[in-house]
Structures are given as C-alpha cells and as structure tokens.
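Submission sheet (multi-component)
Chains listed below:
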Amino acid sequence: MIKLDRSSTTNPSRIELRRKEASYLASIGSANLRYANAYKDGPVKALLLHESCGKCMYCESQITHIYPGDVEHIEPKIHFEQRRLDYDNLGISCWSCNHEKLDEFSATTPLIDPYNDDPAGHFIFIGQFIRQRPGSARGRYTIELLKLNDRGLPERRLRVIDGIAYALERYESAINPVLKRAFEHEIEIFIGRCAEYSAFARAYARACGYNP
Ligand SMILES: [Zn+2]
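Outcome: structure written.
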C-alpha cells in the first residue's frame, strides 16, 4: 500500500457526481432513490483508476482488463448511506480485497485508508511481507482483515523483488555511464508509483542502499 492523492475537486467527473449526490441525498427516505448507483459511473471509475495508477488501493495489485476492479466504499455504504456518493469515500480495489473487506467497519480501529492516512506510518515492508509498525493496531487490523500476507500476494511480490534485485546488481556493477543510466531507469520503473507492489520494491532498494 502506498500513499494516494485525490484529483482536484474541480474535476468535471467529481462535479457531476456531486450534482447527482445532492439529488440522491434529497431522495433518501422516498420511494425512488435517485442516482443510487452513480458511484459506478464510467467517468467516476476512470478517475479512481487514474488516481491509483490502475492498481488496487489496498494491495497494489494491478487491476486487469479481464477484471476491471470494484468501486470501493471506504466507509461501507450499508452503514453510511449519506456517504454512498461522496467521492472522498470512494476508491478502487481488486476483487479479493473487496471481498475480504465486505461491509466490515470498525469505528475504533478503521482500516488504513491510503488517501487520508500515510501507509508508511503504519506498515513496514520486509522482503515480500508486510508487517504493522509496532503499536499500529490499525495496521495490524488491515493486514489481517484483507489477508495481505496471503492470497498468493507474497509470491507475486517476490517476482518483483527478484526483478529489482537483478536491476540493482547490474546497476552497481556497471562501469559504462550509459549502461549505468539505463539500469537506473529500470530501477526507477520498479519503484515508481505506478509499478505493481512498488512499496516492496522501494523498501528493498532502500535496504540495498540505493539512493537515486
Ligand atoms: Zn487488492
């Protein structure tokens, strides 16, 4: 999990959702709920995917074209009807995270929300595993509820670590400056915010003393 930022509140997709949200909120309690599913609208989903670089907001798995991802309510819509169309309550998640989380919500120990929390303050990334920082009950709860060290995730992260380890090896060994720059570029792709499991690649690069 890495820190994510929201797009501007003046983004046209957000403005349109706000318009529908006002209509939806006004219709609560009536027989006809208006725009109840507008959170799934194509432009909203596209914006959420853009913000997360096409990755799950929780586990950093790439959302594929085969499975286009779920629009996630950070505070579940079943408990927080008023936040159903609140853009600041939406994110994009993979099928597995969405189904592990379901409607779970803890007011005292909320899940780590990468838009409003800094995941680096709650997690450490050691090899292919994610651990909570000592004392972070929320970090621990997030790892356990979403099974972030299960579901085949460590195996997939290990492939990324093997890749960056190879790139680091070649970077450190390169004498030719052109080749060194090429390997540096390769490393930057692994640790870039749009790379799958970039939190693990970054932690590995840091542990190897890589300082761009
Ligand atoms: Zn996920």
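Remark: The chain is about 40% helix and 10% strand.
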